[in-house]
Amino acid sequence: MVEIIRGVIKKQGSSSLLDNAFQDMDYNGMLFLGYPLIGLGTAIDALFISEEFGVIIFDLVEGTDFSDRIEIQDELFNVLQANLLKNKSLTNRRNLLVDIDVISFAPGCSGSNDSCLYDKGDVKPYLEKKERWKHPEIFESLVSVIQVATKIKKAEIKTFTEDNSRGAKIAKVNAAIATLDREQAKAVLETSEGLQRIRGLAGSGKTIVLAMKVAYLHSIYPEWKIGVTYHTRALKQQFESLITKFTIEQISQEPTENLKILQTWGSSNSPGIYYDYCKSHGLEYYDFRSAKSKCGFDDPFDFACSTALEATVEPNPQFDIILIDEAQDVPESFIKLCHNFVKDNKRLVWAYDELQQLGTPQNLDIEEIFGKGTELRNNAGKPKEDIILYKCYRNSRPTLVTAHALGFGIYRNEGPVQMFSNETLWSDVGYEVTRGELELGKDVRLERTSDSSPLFLEKIDKDSEIIKCELFSGFDEQVKWVANDIENNLKNEELSCNDIIVIYSDARKVQEKMGPLRKMLLEKGIKSHIAGVNTSPDAFFQNDSITFTSIFRAKGNEAAFIYIVDSQFCYSGYNLQKKRNILFTAITRSKGWVRICGYGEEMEGLIEEYEKIREKDFTLDFKYPTKEELALMETVYRDMTPQEQKSVETSKESLNLILSSLKEGTIKKEDIPENIRKSLLDHLS
After folding, report:
1. Among 551, 554, 553, 567, which Cα is nearest to 467's?
2. 53 CB contacts (<8 Å, ≥6 apart)?
3. Are residue 429 and residue 346 in the same domain, yes or no?
4. What confidence tens digit (pLDDT) does each residue in 236-290 have?
5. Which GO terms describe its cellular component (predicted)?
6. How many domains does the chain have?
7. How many CB atoms lie within 10 A of CB 685?
8. 195: β partners
9. Most buried of 40, 141, 208, 413, CB within 10 angstroms?
10. Packing angle between helix 300-311 and helix 332-341, nearest 10 degrees?
C-alpha cells in the first residue's frame, strides 16, 4: 500500500492525476506530493520511494509545453543525488546504493518520449517494467533520510565523559526521536485549503509539528502573511526559537516580517492577535484588568474576544493563514476571531489536546465556531483536515502510566477522583485492553503499547530510576535532598541547568516556599530563577540557571529531569480533581526522570498508590466506575471557590456542634423541629 503525503502542491491538475494513479497500488512505499528541498526553499513536484524501486522523481508538467524537460530532469537528479550521498547509511564507499530515476508526467501533452508518461494509466505499466532495486534492506534508512524535511536537526554536539550518565542517556533519546513519524510528517507537510485540526496528547509533538509547518509554509510561500499564536506567555521563548531554527534550516535565513509570532492577547507593548485585531478594526481594546472588571467571574479573555466580534461590522482580514498552538487553552470566541482575521480561503490550523485536563475532555464545537454544517473531513486524494498524533514521545511508559494512575486516583483506597465519562477515550490516548471489558461498571486492565509509548528511555534505564517517590521527615529534609540531588545531576550526571525544572505543587506559594531551596543551591554555586517572577513573563529557561515554577507556567514546557516539591498537597482535601491534574501535568513535563517529593501521612498515601502502580507493572487494573459513580465524583471532588469552601467548613462545624450537643444531652432531638429533621434526612439519603 502506498502512503501519500500531500504537501504544498502548485501543479494541481497533474498532481491530482498522479495521486489517483497511486491510490490502489500495492507497493510498500510513500509518495510525497510537493517534497521540500531543505535549504533551497523549493520543492520537487512529486517523489516516490519504495522497497521495490528506490527513488523515482516525477517532474510534473501542466499544460502542453514539454520543452526543456531533459535539463529539468538532470537538475532534479543532481540535487537529490547530492543530498543522498551525504548519508553514509545509503552509500558503499563513494557509491550510492539507492536507485534514482527521473521521469516527467505530462497529462496535457501527447507523444512517445521514453522519459515521459502522458496519462495516469501509463504509471502502473511503467512501474511493472522497471528493474527492481537491489538494496531494499536499507529502505528504512532511505525513509529517514528522505524525511529530512521533517527531521529535527541535531543541536551542537555535546561530548560526555560517561556513557552511562543521564546527560548521555537523554542525548541518545533525543537522537532516537529526531525523525518525525509518518503522521507527524503528514501534519507538517499537508495543509488544507481551509480548516485543519492537529490533535494529540501532551508530548506527541504538536508544538514541534506546528513550528516545522510554519517554517515549511514560509519557505514555499514567502509572500504569505502568516500568523502563529500561543496562549501561555512562558512558551514564547521556546516557540520563537523553534520557528527561527526551522526557518533557517529551510531557507538559510531568519523569518521575514511576513511571519509574525504573536501571543493570543497582546498589548501596545507586546503585539498579539487580539490586540492587532482590535487595532485593525478600530475597536476598543481590553487588557486583563479592564476585561475582568466588566465580566466578573466569567473568563476575561472570552469577554474581550466576544465583545470584539460583536462590534465587528465588516471583517478586515490581515493573514493568509493563522496557526494556533495549545488551542484547548483559549475560548472558542478567540478561534472565531482568528477565523475572521484570515483572508477568503479561511486557512486556519489549530493544535489541540482534548485531554490536557483529566476527566471530561474539552471539545471545540466546530459548528458553533465556523457555522452550521461545517465538518472536518479526511477525504481520499486531499490533505487531511483532522490529524491525530497517537504516539507520546516525551514521556516513557512508566512515567505516563504513573501520571494517569495518580491523576485519576485509580489506586486510591477510596476509589478514583475522576474518570473519562466516555470510556473509549482510553484507546485515543494509546492504551489497549489486555483483560476484562472497557465498559462502565466492569473490571478492566489497560496497558500502553510500545507503539504508543516508544521504549527509547526504558531500553537504557530501569523503571525504578525513571520515576521515584521520595518520602522525607519534613520540609527541611526534603529541600536539602533536592538541592543535593540537583548538584549531583549537574556535577556527576552531566545534565545542564536547562535540563532541570523544579515544580512547586501550590502555585500560590512558589516564592515563599522555594526560597530556602534556592538559597541552598546558591550556596553550592548554582544559580536559579522563578519563571515569570525573576524573569520576563515571556521567558522560562535561562542559561546556567535552574528554573523554578508552578504548574501554570510549566505547562507546554519540558525538561529531562523534573522535581515536584511538596507533592503531598495533591493527595487529598478540597478541589481534589484540580490537585490531581496538577500532579498529572507536572509528571508529564518530563522527557526523562521524575522525582515526586513530599512528607507526612499524605505523602505516605501517595507512595502507597505509586507502589500499587509498580506492583501492576505500570498497567491500569481497576473497576470502571458506573454512571452513578461518575456523577458522584463530579460532585464530591469538584473545584470550589474559597467562599464555597468556607461555607462548607462553617456548615460542618454547625453540624458537629449539633451532634456533640445531642450526644451530651444538652439538647434533645425533639428540640429540633420535625420539618428540619425530615428535610435533613431527605437530603442525606
Report:
1. 567
2. 27, 29, 99, 101, 127, 130, 132, 133
3. no
4. 888 888 899 888 877 788 999 999 999 999 998 888 999 999 999 999 999 999 9
5. cytosol; DNA helicase complex
6. 4
7. 5
8. 348
9. 208
10. 40
Residue 603, classed as helix, strand or coil, is helix
> Residues 477, 584: one domain?
yes
Q: Do both 408 and 516 map to the same domain?
A: yes
What pLDDT is stored for residue 566 in this prediction? 98
Residue (of 662, 679, 680, 682) closest to 671 by Cα position: 662
Angle at which helix 397-408 crosses helix 600-615, to 10 degrees, equals 130
Q: Which three cell numbers stand for residue 585?
A: 501535568
DSSP 417: S
Confidence (pTM): 0.79
Name the 3-class secondary structure at 406.
helix
**Last residue of one domain, picked from the residues 370, 389, 408:** 389
* Interval 141-155 mean pLDDT: 66
**CA end-to-end distance (rounded Å), the chain:** 61
Does 637 map to a domain?
no
DSSP 619: -
| In contact, 218 and 250? CB cutoff 8 Å | yes
DSSP secondary structure letters along 147-191: GGGGB----S----S-TTSHHHHHHHHHHHTSB--HHHHHHHH--
276 and 132 within one domain: no
- For residue 571, what is the domain's CATH number? 3.40.50.300
Q: Which of 464, 503, 362, 352 lies closest to 420 in space, CA to CA?
A: 362
Residue from 383, 303, 317, 377 nearest 345 by CA: 317
Domain housing 658: 642-684
Q: Which of 145, 174, 147, 146 is nearest to 158 (CA)?
A: 174
Query: 354, 389, 424 — which closes off a domain?
Result: 389
562 DSSP 8-state letter: E
Q: Are 437 and 444 in contact (CB under 8 A)?
A: yes
CA distances (Å), origin 353, targets 357, 363, 557: 9, 9, 14
* Cα–Cα dist 399/469, whole Å: 12
User: Could you read off the pLDDT of 551-598 as tens digits, one per residue?
Assistant: 988 888 899 999 999 999 999 988 899 999 999 999 999 999 999 999
Looking at the domain assignment, is residue 513 inside a domain? yes
In a domain, 19, yes or no: yes
**Rounded to an integer, what distance in angstroms lies between the CA atom of residue 541 and that of residue 520?**
20
CB 317 within 8 A of CB 347: no
- Give every CB contact of residue 655 below 8 A, 6+ residues apart in sequence: none
